[in-house]
Amino acid sequence: MIAQDIEQVLISEEELQEKVLELGATLTEEYREKFPLAIGVLKGALPFMSDLIKRIDTYIELDFMDVSSYGNATVSSGEVKIVKDLNTSVEGRDVLIIEDIIDSGKTLNYLVELFKYRKANSIKIVTLLDKPTGRKVDLKADYVGFDVPDAFVVGYGLDYAEKYRNLPYIGVLKKEIYSF
Ligand SMILES: O=P(O)(O)OC[C@H]1O[C@H](OP(=O)(O)OP(=O)(O)O)[C@H](O)[C@@H]1O
Ligand SMILES: [Mg+2]
């Protein structure tokens, strides 16, 4: 079915779940004495966030921010739009931003600056994937699941034109799907 559009599986379901466990254990230690505000960046972070929070064994509060800069393209427009803002104030809070991928870095750079301006006490980033070759601004995550090569990847939350978010693994799309 939708798997027929995938050229190659980069990260299997088992590898994803193993990494989520490992990151959950690390974050449990990091936030043991705190009550962080975990902010999921919609829509891409949803599957990762859903799995990760179940592996964090300390008190956490959840919120969501919906920002978008890709539309239906495979290259960032560079303009980050807030589609849905937080319900909670970040002032004085220990913020943990949960992302699916850092590519150009523009989305997270925008969010980090916004949360600094709103006076968060601390801001950390956990991202499932990092694509260092895509970077346009200087930005590093505190916790990274996997580095990915310079290819447009989909699955486990990541989309191409809003499709493929529901694949249970991370794959590379066949070229003919997005170049015509
Ligand atoms: O580092 P960057 O170049 O900014 O790219 C990363 C961002 O782009 C994607 O979101 P997108 O804007 O496509 O929204 P989505 O999560 O709803 O797909 C992805 O989920 C990250 O949030
Ligand atoms: Mg997208």
TrEMBL record:
Pathway: Purine metabolism; IMP biosynthesis via salvage pathway; IMP from hypoxanthine: step 1/1; Purine metabolism; GMP biosynthesis via salvage pathway; GMP from guanine: step 1/1. GO terms for cellular component: cytosol. Residues 17-160 form the Phosphoribosyltransferase domain. Pfam families: Pribosyltran. Gene3D superfamilies: 3.40.50.2020. InterPro entries: HGPRT (IPR050408), Hxn_phspho_trans (IPR005904), PRTase-like (IPR029057), PRTase_dom (IPR000836). It is an enzyme of class 2 (transferase). Its main location: cytoplasm. Keywords: Cytoplasm, Glycosyltransferase, Magnesium, Metal-binding, Nucleotide-binding, Purine salvage, Transferase. It is found in: Cytoplasm. GO terms for molecular function: guanine phosphoribosyltransferase activity; hypoxanthine phosphoribosyltransferase activity; magnesium ion binding; nucleotide binding. Its cofactor is Mg(2+). Purine salvage pathway enzyme that catalyzes the transfer of the ribosyl-5-phosphate group from 5-phospho-alpha-D-ribose 1-diphosphate (PRPP) to the N9 position of the 6-oxopurines hypoxanthine and guanine to form the corresponding ribonucleotides IMP (inosine 5'-monophosphate) and GMP (guanosine 5'-monophosphate), with the release of PPi. This is Hypoxanthine phosphoribosyltransferase.
